[in-house]
Each structure stands twice: as C-alpha cells, then as structure tokens.
Prior knowledge:
Layout: H1 2-22, E1 38-40, E2 44-51, E3 54-59, E4 64-70, E5 82-84, E6 88-90, E7 94-101, E8 110-122, H2 124-130
Antiparallel strand pairs: 1-6, 2-3, 3-4, 4-8, 5-7, 7-8
Amino acid sequence: MKAIYLALGAGAALATLAATAALGMDPPAQDKPAAPVCFRGDMVRNFAARDEEHLYLRVGVKSDVYVFDMVGACSGLQEADSVSVGTGACLGAPADVMVVFRNGKRLARGNAICHAQVVAKLSKEEAAKTLPPGAHP
Length: 137
C-alpha cells in the first residue's frame, strides 16, 4: 500500500513539473540562504572610532564602511594608531579587533585585543550621516 502512495506522489510531482515546463513557467524557486557579507582583513583601508564602543572600518575599493559594536569598552580605541581584524570579518558575526599603539599616544606601546560584533554595512550616504564629525575612516 505504501508503494502505491509513493508512486502516486512521485507521479503527481512529475506531472506538476511537466505542466510547468509546458506552460513556459519557471519551476518553484528553492529558498537559498543569502551569501554572507564578508571582507578580508587586508582590504581595510582606514578606521575611525566614535568612542571606546563603536568602530568604523573603511573597506575595499568601493570604500564600504562596516560598523563594529565593541563587546564592552575597548580601552584606548580612539587613540589607536591602527586596527586589524586578522583574516577578515563578516556582517552579523563576532570579530576580534587588534588595536595597535606605536607612537606613544598611550603610556604603554603594544597591542590590545578587543571583542566586537559586526553590526552594519553602510552606504556612502549612510556613512556620511552616521560618522562622527571630522571622521574619515
């Protein structure tokens, strides 16, 4: 009995596909997960920090701006000489940000690792409205 139901179900599915093709219609679309929005670490061109909890990275040739919300305060972020996200980061994912101090803007030279979440990718217009005055990541 199960074999009959399976055969009938398969036959109905084939008939639906055949009718769709005969009418020139596209078959039902499969829901595909959206590709992640990511960038490589070597694509970072500049950065700006509004405070110790918000970081903006300018990335790639198109100068996309990614917004990072730090998990807790990242001490000295505004005074950093450079930042790095290692091999890269993806929108909506956690990231480790290396904050580098070289020029004595802090009492100690060196690096700090801060944890963050990549929360947005801004268009040029959105970046112009969102970035702190005078900031040009």
